[in-house]
User: Fold this.
Amino acid sequence: MTKQTLNILWLDDMRNPNNYLYTKKSNSNAFLRNKSFYDKIINAYDVKFTWVKNLKEFSNYIIKNGMPDLISFDHDLGKGIEKGLDCAKWLVNYCKTKNIKLPKCYAHSANINGRQEINNLLNNCIMENKNRKIVITEEQQKYLINEITSEEITTEAENVNLSPTENQKAAGNYRMGHISIKGMKISIENPKGSKRYYTENGEQKYNVMKNHYGYFNVSKGKDGDQVDVFIGPHVEDFENVYCVDQNNKEGNFDETKVMLGFKNKEEAKQAYLNNFSPTWKGFRCITGVTLKTFKRWLYRGRKQRQPFAEYVEIKKKQLKESKEY
Assistant:
């Protein structure tokens, strides 16, 4: 069977895609994560690469040849040279000016912050142009949202300040880990293996965290703080999000905790319980929904005042699973 041709514009100052991507071994471990993505592309399509190294070559190609099927961005293009982010900005402006669709995009840079900046810019362009001609399909959006790896999350978590002062805790201005999963910005407060302290009957105690723990930026939970999240082992391959409604000591609803990166409801519930003491009685219920439904709830623009499971839209769209937990 003849494969469909896929034209890829490859932006990188050093790596020739024809040499790098078709080689079984890479000289840079930092880029092995990207080879798995391109291995799938190369196996599925007859890939034609065009290699450009800077903004001038990038823009000249598009102006002369039109949009490729996919654009792959590096971020750092050499000292004193415009970065991949500058090329992405040019692309967005060009599409707006010409009133045409963005092509599929992927950022292959090993620079985590640079990669996220490129993705954020392109994702923002999608949101800003919902009612315009520049529209990205769900299939294309898979390319736009770069999947962060567990290894990269661990690297960020290792930078967390585990001994902030009380003033720093109150202000939230100590060093945390900052990541983005499926386009959602998250700050890690307690890395896996760290101690999370709490007070019980006047006595200070702690739980050793079995998962990275933090909160979603630009969110607001019932208590007025950001919505908390436990990060699971499957951040690169999960479809649904599981939310635990938590009770206080009086048995009333306290807040919702999010379980992100888990394969199923049973795994998510067990992970939640593993992060508390064996005597913990705060678990109320757990509800699974698709990522799309979850995002609508998370960024609804107002404080989440009631249990996650009781929202009308959640009741309608919660996952139908064979087991009850």
Notes: The chain has two domains: 5-144, 157-317. The longest helix spans residues 112-128. The two ends are 47 Å apart (CA to CA).
